[in-house]
Amino acid sequence: MGPGDKIRVVIVDDIAETRENIRKLLQFENDVEVVGVGRTGREGIEIVKETKPDVVIMDINMPDMDGITATETIRRNLPYTQIVILSVQGDPNYMRRAMLAGARDFLVKPPSVDDLTSAIRRAGKMAQDERSKSPSRAAVGGTGSISSSSPLITRGKVISVYSPKGGTGCTTVAVNLAVALHNDETPAILVDGNLQFSDVAVFLNEQGKNSVADLAPRVDELDPDIIEEVVVTHAPSGVRILPAPPRPEYAENVTGEQFSKVLNYLRRLFSYIVVDTSPILTDPSLAAIDSSDLVVLITNQDIPSIKNARLFLDLAEVLKISRKRILFVMNRFDRRISITPEKVGESFKHPISAVLPLEERVVIPSINRGRPFMLDDKSRPISRAMLSLAEVVRQRLSELAAAESQEEKVVGAKVGRLVKR
């Protein structure tokens, strides 16, 4: 946060006295500015859309829409805006639900001045850091087309979703993660990296005329118009799709180098490039993993998938992939099975960062309908867990970017000292 930059705050609470008390408390803070107040969750969402604040102080209990639902909506549309939840109850369940929805902090009413201002400053710093690091809006015009005249994103993030064992739900995670990450400010594209036996288009009930095989021969002359010819727009979510070739034998027409160049070009157009990869480490799959800012490694609770996940972690060391770039996720978690995420993470010395529960009654119908479950009821455990995973992904990417920036500063300082000598 630069000197003179005020933290812009919106207050959302259905009690007028609470709103006024918080506003009065904050007017004495020179680095904080209240830019709007809302009386209901829905009103708060509209005010946030207009003012684009750094921090929202959000009451958890409101008549028309509760603060948790409003938080999910705000975080989906404006990922850099941070939410501080206020509640009359310090119930751990409330706190857990708030954090899963994307809240940055949780305070019990009435908060002390120090607690409130500290929470706002922490959240405000994170919001302004994320805003400065976040790529600018993608080159997508008002009609949804990729425009060659629009400013291009400087560097989007490639996220490969990978499992060394088939059948672990890799495509389900990739599809719904892309939907959870996508919004107007941070557009996402879903790339089908399983070039022989692809499923992404089926999971989204879409069928494209072209595929990544049509881009491969043109990788050195790509532009937004060429990309527009090939990608498909999934209308219900807005996520773009880069399909795999329509037949398995066409996969041979795409080399690892070509696939890598396509992914790196897409960084200019999209904030998130989510790649669904093949369990077999083909050249394109290896290229995707090597190009990735983050690898989401999927396992289930069965011994074969856990064994293969361990083998991949060992391979990652050989490939010099930092473990910080690997986000370990347990999918289809069933509490009745004694193999827990904690035990697996402890055994691997690599913690499981997110757990997606087993909900076959939600997931299987969504696959058969070709409609991601993230587009429907977000109160279900699987949807909340996916939102939590998306937040963990954003947070890890932010941490990696900060570490990279710090490393560059250190190297720059060393070079500067050498030059002076």
| Structural Rg | 22 Å
Percentage of residues in strands: 15-25%
* Reported CATH architecture of the largest domain: 3-Layer(aba) Sandwich
Low-confidence stretches: 135-143, 148-154
Number of domains: 2
The secondary structure category is: alpha/beta
Distance between the termini: 33 Å
Helicity level: 40-55%
CATH superfamily membership of the largest domain: P-loop containing nucleotide triphosphate hydrolases
Strands in their spatial order, largest beta sheet: 8-9-7-10-6-11-12-13
Average pLDDT reading = 86
The helix tally amounts to 15
Number of strands: 13
What overall geometry do the principal axes of the alpha carbons give?
Answer: globular
- Stated plainly, the CATH topology of the largest domain is called Rossmann fold
Overall CATH class of the largest domain: Alpha Beta
Query: Describe the biggest sheet?
Result: 8 strands, mixed
- One letter per element, helices H and strands E, the order comes to EHEHEHEHEHEHEHHHEEHEHEHEHEHH
